[in-house]
Amino acid sequence: MSTQGAPASTVLPERLTAFVRALRGHGIRVGPAETVDAAAVLEVLGLADRERIREGLAAALLRADRQRAVFDATFDLYFPLGMGELAATRAAPAADVTELRDRLAEALAANDATALTQLAGEAVDMLGAYGSAGSGTGGWSAHQTLDRLRPQTLLARILAAGRGGGTGGGGGAGPGDFTERLEADEIRRRIEDYRGRVGGEARRRVAERRGTDEIARRAIAPSADQIDFLVANREQLAELRRTLQPLARKLATRLAARRRRAARGQIDIRRTLRRSLSTGGVPLRPAYRRHRPARPEIVLLCDVSGSVAGFANFTMLLVQAMRDQFSRVRVYAFVNRVDEVTHLITTGAADPAALGQRIATEAAVSGWHGSSDYGSALGEFAECHLDAVGPRTSVLVLGDARTNGFDPNVPALRRIAARARRVHWLNPEGPAYWSTGDSAAHDYAEVVDMHACRNARRLGELVTRLLPV
Amino acid sequence: MAEQGDRPRGDATGFFSSVDDVLERLAEAGYLASTAVATTVFLADRLGKPLLVEGPAGVGKTELAKAVARVGGARLVRLQCYEGIDESRALYEWNHAKQLLRITAGRDETWDETRTDIFSDEFLLTRPLLTAIRGDEPTVLLIDETDKADVEVEGLLLEVLSDFQVTVPELGTITATQRPFTVLTSNATRELSEALRRRCLFLHLDFPDAELEQRIVRLKVPGLDAVLADSLVRVIGALRAMDLRKAPSVAETIDWARTLLALGADTLDESVVRTSLGVVLKHQDDIAKAAQGLTLV
After folding, report:
1. Which SMART domains match (chain B) (predicted)?
2. Same domain (yes/no): B272, B135
3. Domain end (from B204, B220, B252)
4. What is the pLDDT of residues A19-59, one digit of tens each?
5. Looking at the domain A244-264+295-466, which fold is it?
6. Which of A23, A42, A75, A179 should one mutate to test binding to chain B, selecting the residue with the greatest count of B CBs within 10 A?
7. Domain segments of chain A as ranges
8. Enclosing domain of residue B156
9. Inter-chain residue contact B238 with A182, CB threshold 8 Å
10. Residue of chain B with shortest Cα separation from A51
11. Do B53 and B193 lie in a common domain?
């Protein structure tokens, strides 16, 4: 904590409030009461141990585990390990890339956390600088560093060294060949971790030059449930997928709780009056109406064309994971033709990407061309599959309502809506984009309820609120 | 204990004097804590705030509260939450049967005498929350599986946890003389309300890192060979990275270690893993997936 010099009493509260502001900017709700708690934490813990301060502040400021990644990245910016180049513990820093790679391989094999942090600093220092240091345009790039260092190529070398040398360091002294199989994965995880360290280090260095607040706002990735479905890249989708099971469980519990609440409370007048006869007409023991345990049926109608496939696949798997909450789930996919894909979705293989592939190859979702056509798809559904929809069915339509200039065929949607209990349309685009370009969102919104659903958190809210109990 | 440390605050429970003290003494009581756990426990102790522990099943949430009670020489008061728990189970209840007996016993008394008498301490059945607040000795209050309780109970907890006082209309407000060290646990099946979270320090208890887990295994299963413990923990680590329906937690690791000890296995090879995988994984498709991932034939 070299940042706190003599005037700590004035610097620290400022730093803390700036830190809290940055957290708020990332959607973590931190009130003044929490900030006061955090200050009390700093007072009690002192400033001697950075990791303890990190944990202490997390305890005071965070309210859920999903906020932790954002918190850690922000913490590294506001309470950095040091300023400028970190004081080297080794006598001499590496002379060139080859030596750096050698030492990195060593540290990865031994899983030495301090050395890895140190090497991340050196790597950014040596390989990451771009622009001229004097002008305002220069900085450090994690991407450039990793591109030149290529830590992923060290894997084979580390494995070979571990086998050749017998006892490597990380516990290679082996009970046969069984644990060796795990080695590759372990090293891969360590390399991934190292990439994170390099990213954090580059952010820290840039923040020193450009101002912490700006970097905190722009350079920290949002937490998984706030990633926009439409712009998510592959890693983010993978991250999102990991949140699927817990989310499904949470939503199922909420639905079950709503169902329980709905089940009590309705008084059966006839039975209450009859009971009251035995107490002289005074209704001492009210009788409640019994519920038939009828669970709703769900029909999903999903646009699986390229632009919104990530959103559709995630939602399909989510609903499928919650299927014990419904008496029946049927899933239809379309691009410009409709086909039932219920049998293709199994919870065992919860991988949206593979699911998209299977749907594309095993179901007839497109006809002559590959672009989505809501009009003909809705028309075909209303024509051929309408018997899947009954008075107990809730229909969820998933898609961006971009018709590629074809006829939106609103009457077909109206026919579906007339037959179903409720129809909801979940649109991954924000309302600002509705009916811009080829979007027919407002035409459809006149017939059914349309909800903007841009990230997993919003999807969770909508699923619990919209589905009937 | 309260006199130790640099600045004991008014509402501190005062079990510990520093973070290192927490680490050391919890370890003596058989609970190996990570930095996060030790720091947060120390803060909860020093700031006198309740501690909300969330995390997957079997990582030692309840065990933490028990360990703190053991270390602090405190009595442990436990409130197990379940669906439909209410005020009369959590806070207090009047002993109606005894009150009726009292009324019938004193036939010739005036009503005023009877009334003041039947609403006295003798007829009060204290439930965990009130018990924890009323005692004079140091207390650890464990509110287990808070997420299982209904939302209404959370409202009840708010008064208790923010001021550590309970109002009984007939007796007045009872305030804690000795603030209990409070631990709430939750499996996060339901989001707890923001108001309740705000009154607590938050600790997410996750799977421990490899080094700590190894120490835990060695502590809990002393007979196990060091090399075997090492490879055991590595296999568990690989299983956790595998995206299963139910990742194995610390409890399962210990179970597995005990199983291996009982089987007399001295190395972890394919056949041993294949036969005993059911101890660690509880779903058939998880077992199939793990067997594939570990390339067991």
Report:
1. AAA (SM00382)
2. no
3. B204
4. 999 898 888 888 898 999 999 999 988 888 888 999 999 99
5. Rossmann fold (3.40.50)
6. A179
7. 8-78, 97-221, 244-264+295-466
8. 19-91+127-204
9. yes
10. B35
11. yes
Do both B159 and B230 map to the same domain?
no
**Confidence bin at B5 (pLDDT 50/70/90):** very low
Mean pLDDT of chain A: 78
Same domain, B253 and B199: no
- Which residue in A has a C-alpha nearest to residue B53's C-alpha? A59
Q: Same domain for B38 and B183?
A: yes
Q: pLDDT tens for residues B281-291?
A: 888 888 888 88
Domain boundary among B204, B229, B261: B204
Indicate whether B112 belongs to any domain: no
Structure confidence by residue, pLDDT tens digits, B35-80:
999 999 999 999 889 999 998 888 889 999 999 999 989 999 999 9
User: Is the Cβ pair B269, A185 closer than 8 Å?
Assistant: no
- The complex's ipTM? 0.85
Distance CA A338, CA A110 (A): 55
Closest approach of B285 to chain A, Cα-based (Å): 7
Q: What is the pLDDT of residues A367-396, one digit of tens each?
A: 777 788 888 888 889 888 888 888 888 888
- Closest chain B CA to residue A257: B150
| Number of structural domains chain B divides into | 2
Residue among A387, A388, A392 at smallest CA distance from A297: A392
Can you give the pLDDT at residue B177? 84
**CA of A85 vs chain B CAs: smallest distance (Å):** 27
Q: Which residue has the tokens 């809290």?
A: A20
Q: Are residues B60 and B38 in the same domain?
A: yes
CB contact under 8 Å between B228 and A175, yes or no, is: yes
B contact residues 51-110, partner A, Cβ 8 Å cutoff: 54-55
Q: Are residues B144 and B222 in the same domain?
A: no
